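Appendix B. Chain record.
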Amino acid sequence: MTTVNLDYQARRFYVLSGGPPTAGAPSAGGTVHGVSGDDQGANQLPNISPNTRIGYARCPGYPFLVETGGAFSAGGALKTDANGKAIAQGGSGTIVATALEDSSGSGLFKWAVFT
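Structure tokens predicted for this chain:
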């Protein structure tokens, strides 16, 4: 578990940079370091600032909710768009996750698992 600044969107892929590390949007089709959680997580844990959200580091086999950027099928390979949303890998770009359920389009929250 990592902490992600609240100005970063919930349930989106992120990359870390700098020191101390801060989360930001990944490049389209690039690698990711994790997925941001919702606004509630940090308020439920001791010693975590209320101005942060929980981020879940990319770890193979870890399931998570992510915002979708388009349609895809359960079992399909996923990559990130430039906004950190999950989209179908489509044969190009880095596979970062596998869809656990179908998505009918953009702006939904669907389960996936890191690869």
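Further analysis of this model is presented in Appendix C.
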